[in-house]
């Protein structure tokens, strides 16, 4: 193997990391099925908490692809929006008599209120594909950390394919929802969930503005 190969890989990786963005507007054109499969394959290769999951007959990680305009997408959009609306109402009631909670949660509450006003959860039905990722629950509960690794890989792969990617964190709230889980074909409460939207980006986003490594790093001796 030539000495240039590792350097070339490093350059390409840096480009992908720098180019990665969270997209919120997508064209309706569907990406190739093979591209979606390669994104899922990248997620499948992500680390997982093997010691927490233990031995199981079911594979610890599952993927569910919902297509814009499909019956399942319509059902998912309705169920997730209903869940977010309920969450928003409960949080607003809790904040009424808890000033400390209001101070901490006001930003999140405003985002939930915006979704309620919008009438839909961004990423669910607003992009060609909505992908739900499920991770088998174990002890200790580190499923969401494993899902974060999985989605990170998927995000980087989507970027490499020049596809837009949007995290749909509200998916995590659906893990105990019977109707949603039945639609996926899994048992409620047995799997942690998260999700993302994928499609061709409708906007060209500006570069991220970040501090330098030296500004945020302390070397300890």
TrEMBL record:
PANTHER family referenced in this protein's UniProt entry, alphabetically: IODOTYROSINE DEIODINASE 1 (PTHR23026:SF90), NADPH NITROREDUCTASE (PTHR23026)
Please identify the protein, giving its name as recorded: Nitroreductase
InterPro entries cross-referenced by the UniProt entry: Nitroreductase (IPR029479), Nitroreductase-like (IPR000415), Nitroreductase/BluB (IPR050627)
GO molecular function terms noted in the UniProt entry:
oxidoreductase activity
One Pfam family name is: Nitroreductase
What is the organism of origin for this protein?
Methanosarcina spelaei
Q: Which of UniProt's keywords are assigned here?
A: Flavoprotein, FMN, Oxidoreductase
For this protein, the record's SUPFAM superfamilies field holds: FMN-dependent nitroreductase-like
State the coiled-coil residue ranges. none
């Amino acid at each position: 193997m030539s000495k240039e190969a590792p350097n070339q890989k490093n350059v390409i990786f840096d480009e992908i990391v720098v180019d990665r963005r969270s997209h919120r507007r997508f064209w309706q054109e569907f990406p190739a099925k093979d591209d979606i499969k390669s994104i899922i394959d990248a997620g499948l290769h992500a680390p997982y908490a093997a010691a927490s999951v233990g031995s199981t007959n079911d594979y610890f990680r599952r993927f569910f692809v919902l297509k814009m305009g499909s019956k399942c997408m319509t059902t998912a959009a309705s169920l997730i929006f209903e869940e977010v609306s309920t969450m928003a109402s409960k949080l607003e009631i809790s904040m009424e008599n808890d000033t400390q909670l209001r101070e901490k949660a006001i930003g999140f509450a405003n985002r939930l209120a915006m979704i309620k006003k919008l009438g839909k959860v961004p990423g669910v039905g607003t992009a060609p594909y909505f992908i739900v990722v499920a991770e088998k629950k174990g002890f200790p509960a580190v499923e969401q950390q494993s899902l974060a690794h999985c989605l990170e890989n998927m995000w980087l792969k989507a970027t490499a394919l020049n596809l837009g990617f949007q995290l749909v964190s509200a998916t995590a709230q659906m893990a105990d929802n019977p109707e949603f889980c039945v639609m996926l074909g899994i048992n409620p409460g047995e799997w942690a969930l998260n999700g993302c939207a994928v499609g061709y980006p409708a906007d060209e986003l500006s570069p991220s503005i970040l501090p330098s490594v030296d500004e945020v790093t302390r070397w300890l001796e």
